[in-house]
């Protein structure tokens, strides 16, 4: 009998962004936008129904700049400002999470990604038999996937979900999860303005990582000129070595953020159903109230 307990870690900002852009605009009678909150809760409810977790915790970004901005001034420089429609919905999501008694973590100087990596590490130290699902709207967390950690993310729409385990990551990207940072060191990440190596696309990057396992090995081979690569690719790699190494550092999620995390505090299901119903009715999410009974109470 499988006695594994499950933890869902919510990547809140990524999920809100995805919901905001995936759903048609939605607002309360007073004009307050609520579409991102609705999409966020719709996905969370589905994840809870699908995964039946014992524990749930949420992470958020803060407005403060992070250590990545100090390493690379142009980090996320070309990213447009977060739409005000999302910004005004963040406090609302936090209120709903509070009603559900789901703990929230955010820390200046770090991104939600770093908190996710840290919580994953601490949770497994507190219960090594745990199965962790990261609920997110983007692919940054794929680097954490292993035998105990999976990604639960959105497909094309808000109702279509995909679970990434090790095999699914390899199938999609051609590299293992623990090679995703090396892969991104070469391809870069336009959404975060991470440069990577100019001229190297995903297919070439996957082939290089398959052959050399890591960019450290790759650059060792380039140094001794034993790397078997097209001259054009070799030249691009040599010219962009600094960018590649910096990019790898920028995409790596830090798992040593100093936070006070206790797995037991994240036990899900001990909320006051009436208070949650009141909150959902106040947001005019009547259809979600009907779904409440489907969420398991441990």
From TrEMBL:
<dbReference type="GO" id="GO:0033567">
    <property type="term" value="P:DNA replication, Okazaki fragment processing"/>
</dbReference>
<dbReference type="Pfam" id="PF02739">
    <property type="entry name" value="5_3_exonuc_N"/>
</dbReference>
<feature type="domain" description="5'-3' exonuclease">
    <location>
        <begin position="5"/>
        <end position="269"/>
    </location>
</feature>
<dbReference type="GO" id="GO:0003677">
    <property type="term" value="F:DNA binding"/>
</dbReference>
<dbReference type="InterPro" id="IPR038969">
    <property type="entry name" value="FEN"/>
</dbReference>
<dbReference type="GO" id="GO:0008409">
    <property type="term" value="F:5'-3' exonuclease activity"/>
</dbReference>
<dbReference type="Pfam" id="PF01367">
    <property type="entry name" value="5_3_exonuc"/>
</dbReference>
<keyword id="KW-0238">DNA-binding</keyword>
<dbReference type="InterPro" id="IPR002421">
    <property type="entry name" value="5-3_exonuclease"/>
</dbReference>
<keyword id="KW-0540">Nuclease</keyword>
<dbReference type="InterPro" id="IPR036279">
    <property type="entry name" value="5-3_exonuclease_C_sf"/>
</dbReference>
<dbReference type="GO" id="GO:0017108">
    <property type="term" value="F:5'-flap endonuclease activity"/>
</dbReference>
<dbReference type="InterPro" id="IPR008918">
    <property type="entry name" value="HhH2"/>
</dbReference>
<protein>
    <recommendedName>
        <fullName>5'-3' exonuclease domain-containing protein</fullName>
    </recommendedName>
</protein>
<dbReference type="InterPro" id="IPR020045">
    <property type="entry name" value="DNA_polI_H3TH"/>
</dbReference>
<dbReference type="InterPro" id="IPR029060">
    <property type="entry name" value="PIN-like_dom_sf"/>
</dbReference>
<dbReference type="InterPro" id="IPR020046">
    <property type="entry name" value="5-3_exonucl_a-hlix_arch_N"/>
</dbReference>
<keyword id="KW-0378">Hydrolase</keyword>
């Amino acid at each position: 009998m499988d006695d594994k307990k499950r933890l869902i870690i919510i990547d809140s900002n990524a999920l809100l962004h995805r919901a905001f852009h995936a759903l048609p605009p939605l607002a309360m009678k007073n004009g307050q936008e609520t579409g991102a909150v609705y999409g966020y809760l719709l996905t969370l409810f589905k994840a809870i129904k699908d995964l039946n977790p014992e524990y749930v915790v949420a992470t958020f970004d803060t407005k403060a700049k992070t250590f990545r901005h100090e390493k690379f001034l142009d980090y996320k420089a070309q990213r447009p400002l977060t739409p005000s429609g999302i910004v005004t919905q963040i406090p609302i999501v936090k209120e709903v999470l509070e009603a559900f008694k789901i703990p929230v973590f955010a820390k200046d100087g770090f991104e939600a990604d770093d908190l996710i990596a840290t919580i994953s590490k601490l949770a497994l130290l507190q219960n090594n038999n745990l199965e962790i699902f990261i609920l997110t709207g983007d692919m940054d967390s794929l680097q954490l996937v292993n035998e105990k950690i999976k990604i639960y993310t959105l497909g094309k729409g808000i109702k279509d979900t995909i679970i990434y385990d090790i095999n699914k990551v390899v199938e999609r990207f051609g590299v293992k999860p623990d090679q995703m940072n090396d892969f991104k060191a070469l391809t870069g990440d336009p959404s975060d303005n991470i440069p990577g190596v100019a001229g190297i696309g995903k297919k070439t990057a996957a082939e290089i990582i398959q052959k050399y396992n890591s960019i450290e090995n790759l650059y060792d081979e380039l140094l001794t000129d034993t790397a078997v690569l097209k001259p054009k690719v070799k030249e691009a790699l040599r010219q962009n070595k600094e960018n590649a190494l910096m990019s790898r550092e920028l995409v790596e999620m830090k798992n040593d953020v100093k936070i006070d995390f206790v797995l037991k505090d994240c036990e899900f299901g001990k909320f006051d159903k009436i208070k949650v119903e009141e909150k959902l009715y106040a947001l005019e999410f009547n259809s979600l109230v009907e779904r409440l009974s489907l969420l398991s109470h441990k």
